[in-house]
């Protein structure tokens, strides 16, 4: 059996790695000279910048992968209490309590909202077709929870708008809690604080991870662009272009698409027009990442956590800011502080495409106000745009997932964040599961 994997982002790389471990023959094609997709680490003078994901949230599969790649010594733990998350409300930052019970004791929510939260255990479960995240939380916890907790958290995790994201595609565990226990709070158990997953970075940047996987692969082909896929006599014929070798056709038993939705759609227009049409409808949130540095003595706010989220109710410019150097001090000079601000997302898409000079100025003005910064100008700023940063699990993703399930019978698969979820650990876990599925479905030897 021979498998073609198209796209060497973290999903495609991880899938190739796990197929190789299982003894499945594969070829991984990447059109760019560099692997990693949206994982991009750069050095700008004295500043180490993450242009994509800012850190890793560990899960079992990711921890195991890091060990197998012998990257344990590269892992950097946070220097501060990374479980602390702040939310802006009424012009001030509030540290988010770590459990529902502590939330009830805190002054963050209005007493009417806290009363609504306590009554959640008495609400009967409901089956709402195509329920959005906002609708679910509003009916069970109230609108203030949506505005000041759900919307900023979804903006940070997905760059998304919970008014549009589907609950069963975004937070399926919450729907299952309601079905099984009749109440989210009953399932969470008020007596136990919710654990926060450990966030970590890597000594030379997160790009170390995809590069380490790539170094282990025996059939990785960079600068190889797959231009067309044909299905003929039960096989897939791929037309692959390389600047040196020209255009060549190769035959495969199975194909795995590990590309952004719109790139996958263009590639599949001829082979599977129905899936291609559905993929063209997948929406992406634009995001602009801004890194800003100041002298430590200019900061008038204690940076004792991961960062701060900005609800749209507060009319912010950025959706939130990660206190990058508070977590990982070695990424900037010792006497400076480095902030990573995120502008855009589905809730404020228009901000992401503003002129760079305006974005930099407005981020500086917002940081100055929020953190009582005395400096007139930052000592460093950098801007990086992602026109299509994160796929949105809205109503259009349903048809995509349904068609994929049917096409897997023809050994056409997808391994990417519009299937697995937006986070790196989600993609690694899904890749491992898909490798096992492909292994189990391989033709038996005569």
Keywords, separated by commas or semicolons:
single chain, 446 residues, alpha/beta, seven-stranded mixed beta sheet, five-stranded parallel beta sheet, 20 strands, globular
Description:
With 446 residues, the protein is α/β, with parallel strands linked by helices. 36% of the residues lie in helices and 24% in strands. It is built from 18 helices and 20 strands. It has helices spanning 10-22, 60-68, 100-105, 111-118, 133-141, 143-158, 167-170, 172-181, 184-188, 208-216, 261-268, 273-280, 324-327, 349-352, 356-370, 397-407, 417-420, 424-440; strands at 2-6, 25-30, 41-44, 47-50, 56-57, 75-76, 85-89, 92-95, 199-202, 220-222, 224-232, 235-242, 246-252, 254-257, 284-295, 307-309, 320-322, 336-344, 380-391, 412-414. It has a 7-stranded mixed sheet, with helices on both faces. β7 (85-89) and β8 form a beta hairpin. α1 packs parallel to α18 (424-440) and α12 packs antiparallel against α16 (397-407). The longest helix has 17 residues, at 424-440. The two termini are 13 Å apart. The model is unreliable at 190-194 (pLDDT under 50).
In short:
With 446 residues, this protein is an alpha/beta fold.
The whole-number mean of residue pLDDT values reads 93
Major β-sheet annotation: 7 strands, mixed
Low-confidence stretches: 190-194
Strand order of the largest sheet: 8-7-16-17-18-15-19
- Count every beta strand, where a strand is a DSSP E run of 2 or more residues: 20
Class derived from helix and strand content = alpha/beta
The percentage of residues in β strands lies in 15-25%
Give the overall shape: globular
Number of helices: 18
Distance between the termini: 13 Å
